[in-house]
């Protein structure tokens, strides 16, 4: 196992648009329709377009097959499609699904079951701008999150013209049909725009090469580092015929788990026993419908392992629907175990500081409008999206999706410069003003997950805790690409005085002809990022490179 870990195979999973980003931005800002629809899913840059069958498109994103799955889990309509095949007909996804998530390897997510009472394409005044609003920090506020307002520091990226309350945007009833790329129609558009305003959706199969990773059966084990680097696709992943044991999350060891579900920006390390008949097995990764990301699409790679002396060209590809753990929409088949990422306790028992935090910040996630202006229009150092945190302090960040938000979808929240303890999450608004007021059934202070990316659930709340022991200007943001663009981010400036002392030593060294001193200061810079006094954007860019 240790040898497998040292030789772990990286799998960078991404979603891929055939259109360039500036074209997508323009269409998004013009129509207000979220750019959820990608053309393919890739592993290390390898992948292909695989069109869904007409039966799956007609079934919709839930695939409408709960009863079929219950009666016959190996029905052709309930198994994930085969991967690399010489036959174009094998490229067609005659697959379907309808439960939760993947493999003897996968995970669960909660999605609001409330449904919309109106047609999303006929709604007038559906303009959007993603923002995060914060109450002014008070030492352990006397009001609860449910009673709080969002009048503190606005985090919108551009001016808003109107707000249309939309409390159930993400909880739409299942749409009956999917477009050619497996996408449901947009959930909201600007007034005067609709599905007909968007480029026509088309799908054409391609035969591009799939990623193939090779191991030898005699190794006994193979390890993988999986990363979801996608823009809009939450992914489930599985390996046909094999259990995947999760041993690390976001770069830190955890108690072993079976299963795997990757939100945006999340990383998992898994190990697999090479205990099956040597051959080629499909690694599957599928997007599962969630919030605004309503697309059924699957990508694949190949794990090839053979006995000593066997030629890869002579290896057969195992294509048995009975060996697949997940369905084409990323949900698990009934015989698969699912990862509960709340059980990913740190391996070394790293528990959060107990008791009351030194600082508590409340974030209301609120989408109000599509931005009209792009760019950094304010002095970042004094912007409302810049917060200052004292050094060596315990900080609680309480987040919730505001009831008046036009879109109540969930958000993968990522903090640069730190790991944090994920203390808990739930539906609605966090009903307490601080962590210490919450019961242990709601907040885990004993062995919570310790990582840097975690989902805020749809129409729900989440609480994280971290310690400000790394001076710097750290970005805290939603990992959905398009929500970053429209302003869902803040900069947490940590221990500003220590940062200034670091800047002073670097400036002094830069003015000194002693290059040894300069080298020493630059070495410190790799540990403590500095900043420009004039524009906080420099901090963000530097933090991104150093993160």
Please provide a written account of the structure.
With 547 residues, the chain is α+β, with helices and mostly antiparallel strands. Helices cover 13% and strands 25% of the residues. It has 9 helices and 22 strands. The chain has helices at 2-6, 21-31, 54-59, 66-71, 88-91, 481-485, 496-510, 515-525, 537-546, and strands at residues 9-16, 40-43, 130-134, 212-216, 221-228, 235-239, 244-249, 252-258, 261-262, 267-273, 279-287, 297-306, 359-367, 386-389, 394-401, 411-415, 420-427, 450-451, 453-456, 460-467, 472-478, 489-494. The strands form 4 sheets. Strands 2-1-5-10-7-8 form a 6-stranded mixed beta sheet. The chain has a 6-stranded mixed beta sheet with strand order 3-13-15-20-17-18, with no helix packed on it. The protein is globular, with a radius of gyration of 24 Å.
State the end-to-end CA separation.
29 Å
When the domains are counted, the total is: 3
Tell me the helix content. Answer: 10-25%
**Cross-sheet strand order for the largest sheet:** 2-1-5-10-7-8
What does the radius of gyration come to? 24 Å
| CATH fold node name of the largest domain | Immunoglobulin-like
SSE inventory with pairings:
Elements: H1 2-6, E1 9-16, H2 21-31, E2 40-43, H3 54-59, H4 66-71, H5 88-91, E3 130-134, E4 212-216, E5 221-228, E6 235-239, E7 244-249, E8 252-258, E9 261-262, E10 267-273, E11 279-287, E12 297-306, E13 359-367, E14 386-389, E15 394-401, E16 411-415, E17 420-427, E18 450-451, E19 453-456, E20 460-467, E21 472-478, H6 481-485, E22 489-494, H7 496-510, H8 515-525, H9 537-546
Parallel strand pairs: 1-5, 4-12, 13-15, 14-22
Antiparallel strand pairs: 1-2, 3-13, 5-10, 6-9, 6-11, 7-8, 7-10, 11-12, 15-20, 16-19, 16-21, 17-18, 17-20, 21-22
Helix pairs in contact: 7-8
């Amino acid at each position: 196992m240790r040898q497998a870990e040292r030789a772990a195979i990286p799998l960078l999973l991404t979603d891929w648009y055939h259109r360039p980003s500036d074209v997508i931005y323009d269409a998004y800002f013009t129509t207000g329709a979220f750019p959820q629809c990608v053309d393919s899913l890739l592993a290390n840059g390898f992948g292909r377009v695989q069109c869904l069958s007409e039966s799956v498109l007609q079934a919709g994103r839930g695939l409408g097959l709960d009863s079929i799955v219950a009666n016959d889990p190996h029905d052709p309509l309930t198994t994930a499609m085969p991967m690399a095949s010489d036959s174009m007909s094998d490229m067609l996804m005659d697959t379907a699904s309808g439960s939760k998530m993947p493999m003897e390897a996968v995970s669960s997510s909660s999605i609001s079951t409330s449904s919309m009472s109106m047609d999303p394409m006929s709604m007038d005044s559906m303009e959007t701008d993603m923002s995060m609003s914060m109450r002014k920090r008070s030492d352990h506020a006397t009001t609860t999150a449910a009673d709080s307002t969002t009048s503190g520091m606005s985090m919108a990226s551009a001016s808003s013209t109107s707000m249309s309350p939309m409390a159930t945007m993400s909880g739409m009833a299942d749409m009956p049909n999917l477009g050619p790329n497996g996408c449901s129609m947009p959930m909201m558009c600007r007034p005067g725009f609709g599905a007909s305003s968007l480029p026509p959706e088309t799908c054409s199969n391609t035969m591009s090469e799939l990623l193939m990773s090779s191991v030898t059966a005699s190794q006994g084990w193979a390890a993988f580092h999986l990363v979801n680097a996608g823009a809009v696709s939450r992914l489930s992943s599985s390996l046909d015929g094999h259990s995947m044991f999760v041993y690390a999350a976001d770069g830190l060891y955890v108690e072993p788990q079976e299963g795997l579900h990757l939100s945006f920006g999340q990383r998992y390390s898994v190990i697999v026993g090479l205990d099956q008949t040597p051959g080629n097995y499909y690694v599957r990764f599928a997007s599962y419908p969630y919030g605004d990301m309503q697309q059924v699409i699957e990508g694949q790679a190949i794990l090839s392992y053979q006995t000593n002396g066997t030629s890869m060209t002579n290896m057969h590809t195992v294509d048995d629907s009975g060996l697949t753990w997940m369905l084409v929409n990323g949900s698990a088949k009934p015989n698969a175990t699912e990862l509960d990422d709340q059980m990913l306790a740190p391996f070394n028992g790293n528990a959060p500081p107990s008791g009351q935090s030194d600082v508590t910040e409340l974030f209301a996630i609120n989408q109000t409008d599509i931005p009209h202006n792009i760019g950094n229009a304010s002095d970042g150092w004094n912007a409302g999206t810049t917060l200052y945190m004292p050094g060596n302090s315990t900080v609680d960040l309480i987040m919730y999706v505001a009831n008046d938000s036009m879109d109540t979808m969930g958000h993968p929240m990522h903090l640069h410069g730190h790991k944090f303890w994920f203390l808990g999450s739930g539906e609605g608004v966090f009903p307490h003003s601080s962590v210490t007021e919450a019961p242990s059934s709601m907040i885990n202070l004993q062995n919570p997950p310790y990582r840097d990316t975690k989902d805020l659930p749809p129409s729900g709340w989440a609480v994280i805790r971290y310690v400000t022991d790394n001076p710097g200007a750290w970005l805290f943001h939603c990992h959905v690409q398009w929500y970053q663009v429209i302003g869902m981010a803040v900069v947490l400036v940590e221990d500003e005085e220590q940062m200034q002392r670091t800047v002073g030593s670097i400036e002094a060294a830069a003015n000194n002809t002693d290059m040894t001193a300069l080298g020493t200061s630059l070495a410190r810079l790799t540990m403590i990022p500095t900043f420009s006094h004039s524009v906080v954007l420099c901090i963000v860019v530097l933090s991104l490179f150093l993160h």
